Amino acid sequence: MIRRCLLLVLLLAGCRPPSDGRVHITYWEKWTGAEGAAMQEVVDQFNRSQDRIVVEYLATSAVDRKTLVATAGGDPPDVAGLWAVNVYSFADRQALTPLDDFIRAEGDTPEQWLGRYYPVFADMCHHRGTVWALPSTPATTALHWNKRLFREAGLDPDRPPRTLAELDEFAEKLTKRDPQTGQIVQLGFLPQEPGWWSWAFPAWFGGRYWDGTNITAATEPANLAAYQWVERYTRRFGLEPIRTFTSGFGNFASARNPFMSGKIAMVLQGVWMDNFINQFQPGLEYGVAPWPQILPDQANFTVADCDLLAIPRGAKHPQEAWAFIKFVSSINPHAQREEELLGMELLCYRQKKISPLRQWSPFFEQHHPHRHIALFRQLAESPHAIHIPKIGIWLEYRRELDSVFENARLMLKPNDDALAFCQRRITESWQWHQRSLERRAP
Amino acid sequence: MQPRTRFGRCIVYGLLLGLSGLFLLPLLWLVSTSLKPIEQTMSLPPTWLPRVYYATIGDQRREVTLDHQLPDGRWQVIERSPTKMRTHALAQAIVPASAIEVRVKPRWENYRIALATMGGRSIEEAEGTVAARQTGYGRDTAVSFGTFLRNTLIVCLLGIVGAVLSNAIIAYGFAKIPWRGREAVFAVTLATMMIPFPVLMVPLYGVFKSLGWIGTLKPLWVPAFFGGAFNIFLMRQFFRTIPEELSEAARIDGCNEWQIFWRIILPLSKPVLAVVALFHFLWAWNDFLGPLLFLTRKHTFTLALALQNYQSQAGGVQWHHLMAASLVVILPIIVLFFLAQKTFIRGIATTGLRACFKSLNLS
Amino acid sequence: MTTREKRHLRNGLLFCAPWFIGLGLFTAYPVVASLFYSFCDYSVLQSPVWSGTENYRRMAGDTLFWLSLKNTIIYALLSLPAGMIVALSLALLLNTEVRGMPVFRTIFYLPSIVPMVASAMLWLWIFNGQFGLLNWALLPILDLFGLKPPGWLGDPTWAKPALALMSLWGVGNSMVIHLAGLQNVPKELYEAAEIDGAGTWRRFWHVTLPMISPVLYFNLIMGIIGSLQVFATVFVMTGGADGAPARSTLFYALYLFSVSFYDLRMGYGCAMAWVLFILIVALTVVATKLTEKRVHYAT
């Protein structure tokens, strides 16, 4: 009896699905829902376009962590959809396969290949002399404002704030309080909403995180100015009132999103916002504009980000993985109709984002579903578009900067103390990291 | 120690009843939540029984959810329709409280949906409101509950075989064969129980990686075939209570050690074998850190890991599904407990107790 | 060695062979290797490179390391005494020969064998600040004092007490051990004490406690070792190895895991593991020394 059970168990353990003669590669990606469906369409398109390779798309939560753990264990996916912030630390840890040789096999030098992208995105792909990943969907960020609330506050609904002073001024005018309880019912602007690029405020003010050799968190006066500006918002509107007000905020992806439900009048958001507004609050009247200008020579400032596709080290089918990545990076430059969209443009069309490639097909350019795509494209071309610093310890650095931001908006410690602490910790961390890299230098 | 007075006994009973109520409450809440529709899990004040509400909107009597109560006591009700949930076309009305029909209705379908979506399928597909299209491809996209169960059973059953066999053999070597250096090696064996797992974690991971076993179930059950200090100790204690005369008689009859072990000692050891088997099953079923470390692909996940993954996978936490899935993972253990109660209690109490004394005497 | 002794040695080694393999492969090698790795720069993707005491020096200056240690110790201080008191109290209650004792024992024991992941999920739900059962039950009581129920897992101050409270639900295991210990106390001692005029409390203090002191000591040691290594519940309840909220639940084992497998700094993780090992041994020795006089072994 026991022996029979054992046999059965061993049999079950050895079950394998039938094979169909094609190479199956695994692709782990972060997108679910509509965004996931968009990528699935491109995957289907690729699978149909040839009969050698089948891509298996898998939506994975915490895709970066899972990819790193799987790579460490020797069983990684063939293609991984990572965030830009992962690429540099993974590369430094030798967890990615370099793409230079694949590019050269296509007949291009890496510079030529990357030259097809807008500079800000091209720059994100290489690190310390090697190309590690290629863009999947890019994003730029802009100031979104609620036109109806502008009108109600007596402001011109078509004129967004263009300087920092105007931003603060408009924010004041757009803030409403309940006459009886004194509670805030509407805020003009809040630096912590959504808080996804609070790390970028120092750069916005003209500061720097790193001068190429050393960490400069506490040594740049502009960095301090940025956090003092954040603190001023809490001072102006009050810590407790803000806390009470924000505790009623709903999820980002819901009709109770603070911007979409009219609780916050102005917000810095990304190119995906239009998509979410159409889903959850279709009637919202809003406009987009570049980040308000702070420095006289820094017009069209924006924070650019990118999702990237990489091949983990130890992937079982790197050649096939490259074939897929190449497909996603290509377009049909003469597409006149929706059915003719290919690869990158199909993906960005469905996800309603800009394309990271300089060249746009006629259909993509003229019939893009995003109402304000032209501005986001303009921002992608801007010489003042920034991306995250390409240092392997950026995640840790950003966590410390988030801590400084929290400190500023909750008014816990003086800002220069917080920045000094951040500087100390990250400098130490940076030195450890440098030492580690040197030890392994070939 | 028995309380003398009736008053004393009343206090004891009262305390026991009260405390057992407190201990049972979370499990009851688990069951209650798992049978409710999602909106009733988030009702304030919390309710125990899942209900269904009917009211007349327009001319039709429909199932509704209670949105909120107006100051004059009437209720704002919204039509409840899984298919129309995503659009804005839900019918609404304001009705007096008396016009709402209330019934208790446990939602058994929560279990079906929870098990179907645990492996990655979307709720809409499981509910049938969206045609099941092939979203994704490959073994990891929609893993069935049966796969998770199978993986867990493989680990548990193979582990039991390994644990019982290997530890019995090893304990026999320590208990019934007088060889030089035996006590010293046994002391070392006991000492290894003090080593915390994190010390072994990283190199063990490296060992399994070089064997190519990361991502498979092997790291979870193969080590059971090589013995474990605690089980060796347990079995050795038991074997020592078997009279030496039995082995002596067999030796005189010409049996070698293996035959003595297999034919005489082992059949007499059923109680301790049952304890080891039971506790290994329990440990393997509940194990989380092992699967977290060694399993990378969803179709290899065990139930514990799949449950945790389920929590982090959906867009927002669907408590009723999560509780239903949790109950399904808990239930086999509870059933096992009721089937093997005596072994359980005997296992912890006597062996645990002896363990205290013995291990402390040795230190 | 005589032939018989040689034969015994051969048989003994043969029978214990699986253990020697296991010991070597799964215990001895990892122990030595992790000590070596703790002095190296090691991520399993690249081979280890000797770095001397760098990992240990880094640990000394790592605020997160000290924070995780502090968090773990606070948790242990919260959950261990409470757990022992509850386990002992339950065992005492069950020891009173009331009717239906097996039923009560089952009810108290069951939660301790429930899978950790499932029970963590359940308590996550019970502790929910908005819809949780606990806060709803506490609301009327706290209202009398004009207090609001805490945010439990959403509030950094209350996250650890929440986890400690949850651990009380699982005292069934140690309760059964205590119960067995209590049932082993010879009745004659109680009768003798009663004859001497000792009341319930004095009987407890002078007869029960000394007689079960080995059990208490055992559970104390096990408790120290266990609570310093809490992982599964924290991992599940804080959704990953971040120690949310505000790192208040960043426990030692969690940080170790995060550093080893999410940052891939395994040399550093090994160093942390060895510090944990030394800490556990040290605490065990201290606990033994402190209770040496009070633990009575009946021969």
Please name the two chains that share the biggest interface, counting residues whose Cβ lies under 8 Å from a Cβ on the partner chain.
Answer: B-C, 100 and 104 residues
CATH-assigned homologous superfamily of chain C:
MetI-like
N- to C-terminal separation of chain B? 32 Å
On the 0-100 scale, what is the average pLDDT of chain C? 86
Instruction: Assess the beta-strand content of chain B as a share of residues.
Output: 5-15%
CATH architectural category of the largest domain in chain B: Orthogonal Bundle
Number of strands of chain C: 2
Strand order of the largest sheet of chain B: 4-3-2-1-5
Helix and strand element order of chain C: HHEEHHHHHHHHHHHH
- SS class of chain C: mainly alpha
CATH class call of chain C:
Mainly Alpha
Short characterization:
The complex is a heterotrimer of chains A (442), B (363) and C (299). With 442 residues, chain A is α/β, with parallel strands linked by helices. Chain A has helices at 2-13, 33-49, 63-72, 84-92, 100-105, 110-114, 119-125, 147-152, 164-173, 201-204, 221-237, 239-247, 273-280, 318-328, 343-350, 362-366, 373-381, 394-410, 415-440; strands spanning 23-29, 53-59, 79-83, 126-127, 130-131, 133-146, 176-177, 184-189, 264-270, 286-289, 302-310, 385-386.
Describe this structure in words.
- The complex is a heterotrimer of chains A (442), B (363) and C (299).
- Chain A is an alpha/beta fold and 442 residues long.
- Chain A contains 19 helices and 12 strands.
- In chain A, strands 1, 2, 3, 6, 7, 8, 9, 10, 11 and 12 form a 10-stranded mixed beta sheet that branches. In chain A, strands 4-5 form a two-stranded antiparallel ribbon.
- In chain A, α11 (221-237) packs parallel to α18.
- Chain B contains 16 helices and 5 strands.
- Chain C is mostly helical and 299 residues long.
- Chain C has one domain: MetI-like fold (Orthogonal Bundle).
- Chain C has a two-stranded antiparallel sheet.
- The two termini of chain C are 35 Å apart.
- At the A-C interface, α3 and α19 of A face α3 of C.
